Amino acid sequence: MISKFLNKSQNIQYLEIQLCENYVGDQGAMFIGTRLVEDCVNIRILEIGISENNISLQGVENLLININKLFNLTQLDISLSANNIGDEGAQMVGIKLGQCSAISFLQIGLEDCNIGDQGIFSLIKGLRNCETLTILQTNNITDIRASYFATEIVKYAKLTKLKIYLQFNQITEVGESSLAIGFSQIQSLLLLDIELKKPQQTVKTFELLKFHSCNNFKKIL
Predict the structure, then answer these.
(1) Residue-wise pLDDT tens digits, 107-159
(2) Quick one: pLDDT at residue 63?
(3) Angle at the Cα of 14 from the Cα atoms of 8 and 15, rounded to 5 degrees
(4) For the whole model, what pTM was predicted?
(5) Which of 16, 34, 36, 139 has the most C-beta neighbours closer than 10 Å?
């Protein structure tokens, strides 16, 4: 069914694929990745929902192996939540999406993916072309990688909108302070939406942002 549909989709510019809680697996991810590149070359906006599909590192590589050949792709919303991709899978996501120079809007769902410090380190390093970046609920992040994230995100010269939800992590006041300092140094950033593990942590981070005089922000959510 998907094959027949995608085969007729050469001229479409927007495509949404929702296959959450199915049995896609690594082989199914490879099929989707292959068909997208061969049949949807003109796609500009792509949404892929494949949460809870028993996808591993190999499946992530299969799905994204040639995504950089979608030269017109500017907006990508991809949910990989509840798949055991681990740190290496997060690294693969960062590498492959980092090769997509036209993508300016990126949303990634990574809840319950067994991603730790090394994974977020590798992921964030590859996404510097984004203007709008949303990272939803990455897991097991500590103060060390919160600090790295804050240092690396400053290098995102085009970033105007950032949403990052880190409710299920091990970030303390040290990490909060690092994030606030890093966000305050992103000169292009106009909108920031952040949620941490506890409401009071989020409030504290916003207080720190105000302390660091984030006058360039038009909106803090």
Answers:
(1) 999 888 988 878 888 888 888 888 888 886 666 778 888 888 888 888 888 88
(2) 95
(3) 65
(4) 0.83
(5) 36
